[in-house]
Amino acid sequence: MLSHKAKYALKALLYLAEQDENHISRTIEIADGANIPKKFLEQILLDLKRGRFVSSKQGKFGGYYLIKSKNDITLAEIHRLFDGAIALLPCASLNFYEPCSDCKTEDECSLRHGLMLIRDKTLKAMEGITIASLVKK
Amino acid sequence: MLSHKAKYALKALLYLAEQDENHISRTIEIADGANIPKKFLEQILLDLKRGRFVSSKQGKFGGYYLIKSKNDITLAEIHRLFDGAIALLPCASLNFYEPCSDCKTEDECSLRHGLMLIRDKTLKAMEGITIASLVKK
DNA sequence: TATTAATTCTATCGATTTACTAGGAATTAA
DNA sequence: TTAATTCCTAGTAAATCGATAGAATTAATA
C-alpha cells in the first residue's frame, strides 16, 4: 500500500501538471485544490524538491512548479522516494538491496527468485504510470 | 514490502511442503528449520490454520501439516492474509475496498484508475507464484 | 528600509503498527 | 499421571506514520 505521503505527492504533482505553463503554485493553493493538510504538504513538497521533481521560488509570490516533464515522472519513482523499495523483500530489491538476516546460506533465500519475478513485473507496470497518464483521464 | 509475518509464513509453508506426506511438523522443528523465532511462529501457524492452509494435531506428538495443495497456495493469498490489500490504495482494492476520504467526488479519485491497472498486473503475477513453484528451484 | 507573504527548517507529538516475548491453559499420547 | 505439544491472551519496546508548531529565511513592493 502507498503511504499517505506518497498518495499526497502524486496528487500534488497532478495538481501542478494541470496548471498553466509558468504558473507558480503556493502550498496553500495545492493543499486546497488537492485536499491535503497544508503543513503535511509542506514536507512532501520539500521531499519532491530534494528529489528534483519540483523547484520552488522563495519569498512573496513564491511557490512550487514542476521541473520534470509530467511524461517522465513515474509511479515507480514516487514510490521509491516516499515508500522505498518496490520489491517485496530487501533481498529482491534493485535499489534497496539488503541480504536477508534469516537466510542461512547467503543468496539462497528460498523466496528471492520468485519475488524478483514479481518485482520485475510490478516495476514495469509502475513505470508505465506517469503523471501525464493520470492527468488525461 | 512483505511484513516479517508474511515472509515467515511463506518459509514455514515451504518447510511443510518439503516434508514427506503424512509427516507432522512440530513448531520448534519448523522454527529451527526455517530460522524463525519460535513464539512468533506459533502465532503465524495459528493464523495459517484459521486461513485453512494448515491444520494441526494437539497434544504430545502433535504439530502442523498442510491441508491445501502446495500448487494452490499463492503468494497473493498469503499477502492478503497477513499484509492485507494488494492494491496500492484502498479505493483500488478488490478485497479490501474503501472509498478515499480525501477525494472530493466519490469514484473520481484521480489515482484510482491507474492504480487498478497496477493491481491487476501485480495480482496476476502474485497468483502465479505458488508454494510449489518456490520449492522446486 | 520596513512590511508582508511566502518558503524552509527543525522539532515534537500522539497514535498505531510491528516484531517479538512471556506465561500459562488446554489437549493428547504414552 | 506426566511430558510434550498446541492454543490463547497479554504485554512491550521500538519504529513508523500522519500531522502540527513555531521560528528562521527569503523576496517583492510600498
TrEMBL record, chains A, B:
DNA-binding in keyword set: yes
Pfam family, one: Rrf2
Gene3D superfamilies, alphabetized: Winged helix-like DNA-binding domain superfamily/Winged helix DNA-binding domain
Annotated TM spans: none
UniProt cross-references to SUPFAM superfamilies, sorted A to Z: Winged helix' DNA-binding domain
Keywords from the named record: DNA-binding
Entry protein name: Rrf2 family transcriptional regulator
